[in-house]
Amino acid sequence: MGWPLAVSAGLMERSPRALFAALGPLSVGHLLATLLMLLPFALLLVLAKWQHQISTFASLLLIAFGMFRLLNRRHPRALARIPPAQLGLWSFAIALAHGAALMLVPIYLGLCQAFALDTGHEAAGALMGANLGMAVLVAIIHVVAMIAAGGSMAWAVYRYLGLKFVSRSWFNLEAGWAASLILVGVAALAFNLAD
Amino acid sequence: MTIRPDPTLHASPKLAMEAPTENFAYTVLLSPDFSKPDALAVIDVKPGSPHYSQIVHTVTMPNKGDEFHHFGWNACSSALSPLFGHAFIERRYLIVPGLRSSRIYIIDTKPDPTQARIHKIIEPEEVFKKTGYSRPHTIHCGPEGIYVSTLGGRGKDGTDGPPGVFLMDCETFEVLGRWELDRGPQKLHYDFWWNLPRDYMVTSEWALPPQFENGIVPEDLLSNKYGHRLHFWDLRERRHVQTLDLGANHQMALEVRPAHDPAREYGFVGVVVDTTNLEGSIWTWWRENGKFHVEKTATIPAEPAPKEKLPPLLQGFGAVPPLVTDIDLSMDDRFLYVSCWGTGEMRQYDVSDPHKPKLAGSVRIGGIAHRAPHPNGKPFAGGPQMVEISRDGKRVYWTNSLYSTWDDQFYPDGVPGVEVMANAGPSGGLELAADYFVSFPEGYRAHQIRLEGGDCSTDSFCYPSA
After folding, report:
1. What pTM was estimated for this model as a whole?
2. Alpha-carbon distance A141 to A188, whole Å?
3. Could you tell me if B195 and B236 are in contact, meaning their C-beta atoms sit under 8 angstroms apart?
4. DSSP 3-state assignment of A126?
5. Chain B residue closest to A11 (CA)?
6. Cα–Cα distance between B300 and B281 in angstroms, integer?
7. Pairwise CA distance, residues A48 & A37, whole Å
8. Where are the alpha helices (DSSP H) in A47-123?
9. How many Cβ atoms from other residues are within 10 Å of residue A107's Cβ?
């Protein structure tokens, strides 16, 4: 997410270094947005016996957000007020607005469940620590994967493909993205109920 | 909303230049005595077409007295901003404001320019109520939607409060409200444009409505009461950051033309007249270390003329001022075109070095004293005025009227609406095309031109050409 911004930064400064420098704030913003979504659930999971309810709630939240994006595909106008120099803030806001961070929640909860099968006897403190660690791990893996893909894309466009690729590569995926939010939510819900 | 970005949106000025050339030119027509409704003419500009240089469609408005002047698109290449990340808005609707009525027409140009029709009308009351501004003028599409500059504030004569910029939604065309959060000392308005990635806006000054609606006020001009400042703004914060005064004798700073390549942090502005010697001038502004600067980089002298060839307004001076009323910069930022509406000349400056414009070409046509005819032999009343350059920089179109009441003062014999085109050489030089000459219907004058698929005073870019 945000790879065209890295291309723009590189071209404006006429330096590949500026392109890679832009990836830094883009990663940090996305990471913070992801953690903002995951951490409250990590804390909630201390209530181990409510785990099913928490997962159901997260799935419903994701489905509701996906439906909202499907019906209202416009970006909040406030996003247009973010100055071009504030890449980190932009990345943070866009990850929240698109629901990218929220989408990780059911996946995260699923992972916690999978790895926490025999932690029923552990103290709440240890459980919380494990859950927090898992949240940070999920967020970091997600952001590293995203920035590796986006960074490669930015570099390919900057170095080889040319700016024409910017408009050629863009598809209107808003509806598809909204549908995939709903899909992940439904899958997580089904998985949870079957469990 | 589309699945792929509109093919007329381009990431960089270079890509815009390489795109297919225009087939149609849109031109607004105004009835100077308000006896007929204003209109939008669609002209065939495709070489070899059987209707080449002819009006192929006209959209006539349902009201009279709107006085069309400038207009613009609902979307341009700025929609490819990497900050938006999804550019699925079509360049489809023309936003045509009535400068005198404050009414705004939205014209749909799809499925074909020859079927253009009115999509929506925004009544003046809505503009007044939601913005406190009147007399909408320049249109640009940008990060927060459609930006509209205005020349008047509230009240009947538009002097109750300063004029400014307001925002419109680029899909629903709902008037959203004022753009400025902190306007600083800005009190007059005319044109505006910006550098999107560098996040600044530049605005210029003409005058308040009582100084132009009933004609130019000579006493105000000679006492330097027209606008002569440039204002610089933080675009996303909507905040005034700096004023540059060109000096009170440099009356009427009009068109603002920033370099299209966003990596270049400079631009130009034209000054209509210097009241100390009647000359017109071109100024270059630039940003360095976060501060803006401006300097006069070219002057165009007045031309002496016998009294009997002059309108009453100018007889006391014995000379014709060039009256620099429009300027336009080619997409590659190389050539600046300068309309000398008084002397009847279109000048082409090479601005490869923006601080040292070099005269590269010139065409004489019309003019208060010269009255040079078109190469096809037909008369050309008025002088070169609103100028528009094709994206590839090869064709330069212009019309001949300035503003209803001002036309009558400088050209009392009338200014029948005409549009001509000149071919520009790849390394300079300008020559009128003998086969392009559009005469508009009786009683109409012509003002701004917009080209199908974008042009040099519409599109702003988020990526440099390099």
Report:
1. 0.94
2. 20
3. no
4. helix
5. B464
6. 6
7. 19
8. 51-71, 87-98, 100-115
9. 16
pLDDT confidence tier of residue A121, bands split at 50, 70 and 90 = low
Alpha-carbon distance values, B228 to B50, B254, B286, B433 (Å): 47, 9, 17, 36
A94 touches chain B (CB under 8 A): yes
Answer positive or negative: Cα dihedral of A68, A74, A77, A79: positive
Answer yes or no: are the C-beta atoms of B196 and B237 closer than 8 Å.
no
Residue A101 — pLDDT band, cuts 50, 70, 90?
confident
Residue numbers in A near B143 (CB within 8 A): 80
pLDDT of B22-58, one tens digit each? 999 999 999 999 999 999 999 999 999 999 999 999 9
Looking at residue A122, what DSSP letter applies? S
Is the peptide bond prior to B426 cis by the omega test (within 30 degrees of 0)?
no
Instruction: Please tell me the distance in Å from B233's CA to the nearest CA on chain A.
Output: 13
Query: Mean of the pLDDT values across residues B281-297?
Result: 97
Report pLDDT digits (tens) over A38-74.
988 888 877 767 878 888 888 999 999 999 988 877 7
User: Does A78 contact chain B (CB < 8 Å)?
Assistant: no
Q: Would you say B407 and B416 are in contact if contact means Cβ atoms under 8 Å apart?
A: no
* Sheet (strand B387-389) strand order: B387-389, B395-399, B418-424, B430-439
Lowest mean pLDDT among A174-178, B177-181, B380-384: A174-178
- How much is the pLDDT for A122? 60
- Please tell me which residue of chain A has the smallest CA distance to B171: A74
Domain spans in chain A, listed from the N-terminal domain onward = 3-194
- Please indicate whether, in this complex, the C-beta atoms of B463 and A82 are within 8 angstroms of each other: no
* Other Cβ atoms closer than 10 A to B165: 25
Alpha carbon of residue B284 to chain centroid: 18
State residue A127's pLDDT score: 73
Is the CB of B80 less than 8 angstroms away from the CB of A164? Answer: no
Best mutation target among B1, B9, B14, B86 (most A Cβ atoms within 10 Å) is B86
Q: Is the ipTM of this complex over 0.95?
A: no
